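User: Structure with cobalamin, tokens only please.
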Amino acid sequence: MVTDLLADIKENLINGDQERTVELTKIALENGIEPMTIVNSALAVGMQIVGDRYSTGEFFLPNLVAAGVTMQNALSILEPELQARHEEVQRVGKVVIGTVKGDIHEIGKSLVATMLSCNGFEVYDVGVDVPTEIFIAKVAETEADLLGLSALLTTTMTMQRQIIEELEKADLRDRVKVMVGGAPVSGEWAESIGADGYAEDAMAAVRLAKLLMQ
Ligand code: B12
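Assistant:
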């Protein structure tokens, strides 16, 4: 039953059927399935398949758009549930997070922001397609402990390096830990640009953020 429901959610997301995906997401919650299980075992898996089919030419841009909107709608149902599970948390640190300039991929960055917030971090989400100077200004203004940089394109991941260089020029690099993520990003890339860490998904991002706060 649980496996069937998760498989159904995944299939409907792949097909970009917003209404059915949202409906099934609600049913899954009513049946006691944990919101993070719905994300990890249905929605994220479906998105991966959509991306793969796009790479092979089986899917086109409208399929990416439909799947993206569908996932965001499903996440808007899950977010209050995620928050409700972490009501009484103490603030453990401040994080500025956003997607770098030239890149409008929002879903993964927002999921990481939500999970950090659920785990006690004070989160300043600066959005997508964010110019370097906005990241720098927000880190300075909020006196953030952590900066999270998301990049989903091989052409935009170099912005992560540029932002780290600009933090150095602004004398902020010693005051803030930088974590990077996004589909083309890896641990080796993080190390090569002088970031403090890389995480492959939202749960790993929370673990990394807690580690960097120590
Ligand atoms: C949905 C989607 C879109 C949607 C985005 C909708 C939205 N509102 O976000 C739309 C249709 C807009 C889109 C547009 C484009 N896309 Co697109 N897209 C995707 C797709 C299918 C899924 C991305 C996604 O949301 N995944 C689900 C989330 C949950 O996962 P995630 O983003 O990876 O995030 C997780 C981790 O990476 C990590 N993470 C993410 N950020 C951060 C940050 C930190 C700090 C940390 C620690 C961790 C972390 O945690 C997240 C949560 O678990 C991917 C395929 C893929 N496999 O990634 C292609 C993909 C990223 N897109 C691609 C391309 C080519 C494009 C376009 C150029 C297409 C075009 N011709 O116009 C444009 C670019 C527009 C732009 N300038 O940004 C390519 C990139 C290829 C490359 N190597 O550069 C991909 C890989 C598809 C493919 N296989 O070819 N896209």
